[in-house]
Automatic annotation (TrEMBL):
Location in the cell: Cell membrane; Cytoplasm, Cytosol; Endosome membrane; Golgi apparatus, trans-Golgi network membrane
UniProt keyword annotation of Transport present: yes
Keyword Aminoacyl-tRNA synthetase belongs to the record: no
Membrane topology recorded in Swiss-Prot or TrEMBL: Peripheral membrane protein
Entry-linked InterPro entries: GLTP_sf, Glycolipid_transfer_prot_dom
Naturally occurring in which organism (per UniProt): Peucedramus taeniatus
Organism phylogeny: Eukaryota, Metazoa, Chordata, Craniata, Vertebrata
Full protein name: Ceramide-1-phosphate transfer protein
Record-annotated Glycolipid transfer protein domain positions: 82-168
Length: 206
């Protein structure tokens, strides 16, 4: 029998994203993927449509790193831009590129960042918070059918208190305080990655 998945821990996510950014403003892959795995454990069962999408992308990302680097724990996001060597057109023609895989995680990270910021704000309307975060991040990259399915799924989200409880850090007040610590680290990782993709003119990869 397979071992049960470890419960979500906001402390672990905070630590992973804290370790992501080096003094040289590079995003290390090992803590980046670790932080993502933690976020998926938090959302699993509540945000199943996008979690499935992100979980699949995460597995593809991990497989790509395993094949591309002898020491993946020492690698950073810039590893993937080596795919540009044959030219931008060649990269755009590859549906399985590492750059496209990381970009999908990157977009989903922005959605989760905005949603967590909404949870921290105290607004109890989780369906509204999630829909607003989705519309401000992922919606433009999804076809109409996916957007419709997502907004319908968000209507069934549980209360804000339920989300804060599964963070496993104590009271709701303690969870909110730790979100206040974690969100800036997530935002920092997002900003650095966004700048890298902008520099390489890859933000519009489908």
């Amino acid at each position: 029998m397979a071992a049960a998945a470890a419960p979500f821990s906001l402390r672990e996510v905070l630590d992973a994203f804290r370790r992501c950014v080096t003094e040289q403003r590079e995003v290390l892959l090992e803590p980046y993927l670790s932080g993502w795995r933690g976020l998926i454990r938090e959302a699993e069962g509540f945000l199943s449509l996008e979690v499935f999408y992100s979980g699949l992308t995460l597995r593809c990302c991990g497989a790509f790193i395993h094949c591309s680097a002898k020491e993946p724990r020492e690698e950073n996001i810039s590893l993937f831009f080596s795919e540009l060597r044959p030219g931008l057109a060649a990269l755009r023609a590859r549906p399985d590129s590492g750059c496209r895989t990381v970009l999908r995680l990157h977009r989903a990270l922005r959605w989760l960042q905005l949603f967590l910021e909404g949870l921290r704000s105290g607004d109890p309307r989780t369906s509204v918070l999630c829909t607003d975060a989705y519309n401000a991040s992922l919606a433009e990259h999804h076809p109409w059918v996916v957007r419709k399915a997502a907004t319908v799924a968000f209507c069934a989200l549980p209360s804000r208190d339920a989300f804060l409880e599964i963070m496993n850090v104590g009271s709701a007040e303690e969870a909110v305080a730790m979100l206040g610590e974690a969100i800036p680290y997530i935002g920092d990782v997002y900003s650095i990655t966004q700048e890298l993709f902008a520099q390489h003119k890859l933000l519009d990869l489908p």
